Amino acid sequence: TGVFCNSAIESATADKELATMAQLSHQMALTESVRQIFEELDADSSNQLTIDEFEKGLHDEKVSAFLESLGIATNDAWMLFSIIDVDKSGCINVEEFISGCLQLKGPAKAVHLAKLSTQTNQVRRTIRKLDRAVGFLTASLTHGGESQFPTTRESSDLRECSLFT
Fold it and tell me: Distance (Å, rounded) from C-alpha 138 to C-alpha 112?
């Protein structure tokens, strides 16, 4: 039985290595396919995609079908472009395109939803603080410019709002 167990363990280890190699090979092939799509979209060979090149390229059935096969909806070119354009330069380079397509591939995962929820809560808190600060400033202005000292919370809100620092 010891020989059988050892053989089973070696077989399982080999299976893991094969699965890892297959996954890496698949990832490399996918990356190369996305790179080729980028090159097809880059009409002027500038290594940068403009929104015009991107929109025109998405009208190509092959490009659209490839992105759809990855689970990336292509019906809103502007939104997709703005998501992939991480540095907000107005152009997408090949690294942004590959990274964006690979991140958008497939359905949303729990980690993506959790990140979105966290960011949404942070924005809500910032908006509430900004609302309180604007309320304080409005009240101060409507009282004929009288110097009214804000409450501790209002002072904190004013300091935390980037508009007032």
Answer: 38
- Return d(Cα 91, Cα 112) in angstroms, integer: 24
Helix (H) or strand (E) holding 148: none
Q: Which residues pair with 49 in a beta bridge?
A: 92
Say whether pTM exceeds 0.70. no
Q: What is the DSSP string of 60-75?
A: SHHHHHHHHHTT---S
- Strand, helix or coil for residue 48: strand
Q: First and final CA of the chain: distance in angstroms? A: 73
Q: Which helix (H) or strand (E) holds 89?
A: none
Q: What is the mean pLDDT of the chain?
A: 80
- What is the rounded CA–CA span in Å between residue 65 and residue 57? 11
Q: What is the mean pLDDT of residues 2-6?
A: 61
**Cα angle at 32 between 28 and 33, to 5 degrees?**
115
Which tokens belong to 7?
Answer: 């053989």
Answer yes or no: is pLDDT of 159 > 90: no
Dihedral, 61, 66, 70, 74 alpha carbons, nearest 10: -30
Distances (CA, A) of 21 to 34, 53, 101, 106: 20, 36, 22, 21
Distance CA(131)–CA(126), nearest Å, equals: 9
List, for residues 137-150, the tens digit of each pLDDT value. Answer: 888 888 765 555 55
